[in-house]
Amino acid sequence: VQQFTENEYNCKDTAEINIVIHPLPEIITSNDTLICVGDTANIFAWGGNTYVWNPAGSLTNPEISNPGASPLITTLYTVIGADQYGCTNSNSLLITVQQMPYIYNISADTAVIIGESVKLKASFLNGMTFYWSPDINISSIDSLEPIALIEEDIIYTFSVIDSNQCFTITHDVNIEVILEYSVDLPTAFVPESYPPNNIIKVRGWGIFNLIEFRIYNRLSQVVFKTENIDEGWDGTYKGKKQPAGTYGYIVIVESYDGQLRTKTGSFLLLR
């Protein structure tokens, strides 16, 4: 660069000044990365002589090229690098933090009579995959609300795994069995009423299998029979409504303790 000077006598002269322009340093960082919450990532920067990272709170040392980073949430880190001439440039990298899954609204421990069903339930956050275990007498291990048939004391475990497989979080549901056995039928029913009172069926506790259920009219004719515990009589025989009155029955069941239990009696059909 030439510089002109002039004095009071209009004498002129020139001088030259050299200006050196240094390029900005190219600051390069390590790649974006993912960590599990609680872990530490080693991050790097190069291309400068000195470095300052920000935010600094979760770094082991924010003024070195390779600090350890332990953010609790997903964080964008920016590094400013300076070369030997004091020229600066910056770059950034993202650390994604996988949070721990959280299980809530899960079934409480309970006790039920042997052979009864329980509706399990659970909800979760920050998870991707979930399942129930063990796969014993349960309608579905990958449902949030499966139905479990309880035949013995059992602990069902609900497990949640995050999408990055950082964590597997579990919660136990303890179900205790009450050993109680009975066979019963209602004393009356009205076929024209609303379900489930419009049919008559075997009831009781601890019933493993229905061996026989027969219903007789006043003439000792069998108007209904079944071996299915879920089936009941709707008050018809051969498609015809049966008259109101007294009907007899016999029920034979096998209970969960291996015993055969029999009950006989009568009920009223009301119209």
Can you characterise this structure?
The chain contains no helices and 27 strands. It is rod-shaped. It has strands spanning 2-6, 12-16, 28-29, 33-36, 41-42, 45-46, 50-54, 68-69, 75-82, 88-98, 102-104, 110-113, 117-119, 123-125, 129-133, 147-149, 154-161, 168-178, 182-184, 188-189, 203-205, 207-216, 222-226, 236-237, 240-241, 245-255, 260-269. Strands 20-27-26-22-23 form a 5-stranded mixed beta sheet, with no helix packed on it. A 4-stranded mixed beta sheet has the order 4-10-9-7, with no helix packed on it. Strands 12-18-17-15 form a 4-stranded mixed beta sheet, with no helix packed on it. The protein is an all-beta fold and 271 residues long.
